[in-house]
Specification:
Blueprint lengths: L1 H15 L11 E10 L2 E8 L4 E8 L3 E7 L5 E7 L9 E8 L2 E2 L10 E6 L2 E6 L4 H6 L2 E5 L5 E4 L2 H18 L3
Antiparallel strand pairs: 1-2, 2-3, 3-4, 4-5, 5-9, 6-7, 6-8, 6-10, 8-9, 10-11
């Protein structure tokens, strides 16, 4: 359990380094576990004057995927693999599917989103809520040049994670 907690804290720190939290990194700190289960969690991290960020983590030994909701209604996805060697601040074309629904322009078979590399992660800012897609999804997939990832998840587990994320967002991002 301690190793699990340390992994989550490390992941939460990476979330705090995201663009909407960078200006308050020195003040960041307080982490609250909203839900912990095998290979998944929901946590909040305080980010100074900007309130808190609520994040849903899916991970395994080598890969991680994070959905983050900020106080300012920002939503982002982050993907990481221990096998990736990314240059900082690169723009990478990506396709992201939640279940069978591709985010961005669905009519194109080409990547329609742009990720930015940040501390070994691919960060994909989103323009719309994905809660409804997550509720129905059994798989989340990233397709990028030389950087593909896929996470399978059961609907019952995702339902519990989204309920925890909703509670987190109601409390933590409303201040």
């Amino acid at each position: 359990m301690r190793r699990h907690r340390l992994s989550l804290l490390a992941l939460a720190f990476i979330v705090v380094s995201s663009p909407y939290a960078q200006s308050n990194r020195a003040e960041a700190g307080h982490v609250i576990d909203w839900w912990l289960t095998d290979n998944a969690a929901v946590v909040s991290e305080s980010v100074g004057d900007n309130g808190s960020v609520c994040s849903l983590f899916l991970y395994n030994k080598d890969n991680a995927m994070v959905v983050s909701w900020g106080r300012d209604a920002s939503i982002s996805l982050r993907f990481n693999s221990t096998s990736w060697h990314l240059q900082p601040a690169e723009q990478v074309p990506v396709k992201v599917a939640i279940g069978n629904a591709y985010l961005g322009r669905a009519e194109s078979n080409q990547p329609s989103l742009t990720a930015t590399t940040d501390q070994g992660w691919l960060l994909v800012p989103l323009q719309r809520s994905i809660d409804d897609l997550l509720a129905q999804a059994t798989k989340i997939t990233l397709e990028a040049p030389n950087h593909d990832l896929s996470f399978d998840i059961s609907k019952p587990k995702m339902s519990k994670l989204l309920l925890a994320a909703k509670r987190c967002r109601a409390v933590e991002t409303s201040h």
